[in-house]
Specification:
alpha/beta; seven-stranded mixed sheet; 13 strands; 20% strand; two-stranded antiparallel ribbon; 318 residues; 40% helix
Length: 318
């Protein structure tokens, strides 16, 4: 039986088709990764990759090995889990204050009490997607349709929620006295929606689609703020309304008001790297499905709005 480390090396290269990216994903030197792949080829007596200066491709033997390697590694992870030695499942929640991913993670911990599910905060699905593909994260949340197709090709997702959107206003803003803000009331204003943040272009794209034809402008890029304190300081300084979701945490000297007429919805999916194997991953998917069903998260309100391209990606699938 080949060493599981050699199978992980093979599988990383098979999925990335690039030795440098596979090495980064496994936190090993490229030279060490190449040695492990060559050793596996010697042990199996088969060439697994065709390597040229321009590309790496799987041989027929390599293609046949992929599903078997995944099953062997899944069994290996199950064995370690039974002995209490499984590595933590790393789950990106985007931001500490967002309720949807936090509730899914907490429920998954209840469903899998013997496994460790650890939160990470990558601030945006595009930022997290690169970490997912590199193997430095296991799962994240966000708008799958807003990802670049090249990123989506290596990822899979499960629809979780149509999350109602809101606007954060300075407490002395003319619209702050409203219980809910009609979209038309924002005509002629500028709203911040993460413009220029390389981690969140899927959110900025959602704002552009929502504001198109409504006379609402997306604010120019602000300095990239890392952490809640810096974000709040920059927003207080610019006094620009901020596009958010209804569960966004409170900010000092500001009010959060739901948007209506129509009710704009932010499509949220659980997103992971294709081929992910971990004993706690099924619990995470079950938690997302349970909460979506119990809370009606995937029911579209009559006056709800989502972009046309999200209609396809948010259809329930296995």
């Amino acid at each position: 039986m080949p060493d599981p480390r050699l199978l992980r090396a093979f599988l990383a290269v098979a999925e990335e088709l690039h030795f440098t990216r596979a090495a980064a994903r496994l936190y090993v030197a490229q030279q060490a990764l190449s040695r492990d792949v060559r050793r596996l080829e010697r042990e199996l007596g088969a060439e697994l990759f065709v390597r040229t200066t321009r590309q790496v491709t799987l041989t027929p033997d390599g293609e046949r090995l992929v599903p078997h390697a995944r099953r062997v590694l899944a069994a290996h992870d199950d064995l370690l889990a039974a002995l209490g030695q499984a590595r933590p499942l790393l789950v990106d929640l985007n931001s500490p204050g967002l309720a949807t991913p936090r509730r899914v993670l907490h429920r998954a911990r209840e469903l899998a009490p013997d496994h460790e599910l650890m939160a990470r905060y990558e601030s945006g699905l595009t930022g997290a997607a690169a970490e997912l593909l590199a193997g430095r994260l296991d799962a994240s949340f966000g708008r799958f349709a807003g990802l670049d197709p090249a990123l989506r090709a290596g990822l899979d997702h499960q629809p979780v929620r149509y999350e109602p959107m809101a606007v954060i206003l300075p407490e002395d803003h003319p619209l702050a006295g409203m219980a809910a803000v009609p979209l038309d009331a924002l005509a002629g204003t500028t709203v911040y929606a993460g413009a220029g943040n390389p981690r969140t272009p899927e959110w900025t794209d959602l704002a552009h689609r929502l504001f198109e034809g409504r006379g609402i402008e997306v604010a120019a890029p602000a300095p990239l703020a890392v952490g809640d304190e810096e974000f709040q300081r920059i927003m207080a300084k610019t006094r620009t309304p901020v596009l958010a979701v209804v569960d966004f945490p409170a900010m000092p000297a500001s009010v959060l008001r739901p948007l209506i007429d129509p009710v704009p919805l932010a499509p949220v999916s659980l997103v992971w790297r294709k081929g992910l194997v971990h004993p706690a991953f099924d619990a995470l998917r079950r938690a997302a499905a349970e909460l979506a069903a119990a809370e009606g998260w995937l029911r579209l309100p009559v006056d709800g709005w989502i972009p046309a391209n999200d209609n396809v990606t948010m259809r329930p699938h296995n």
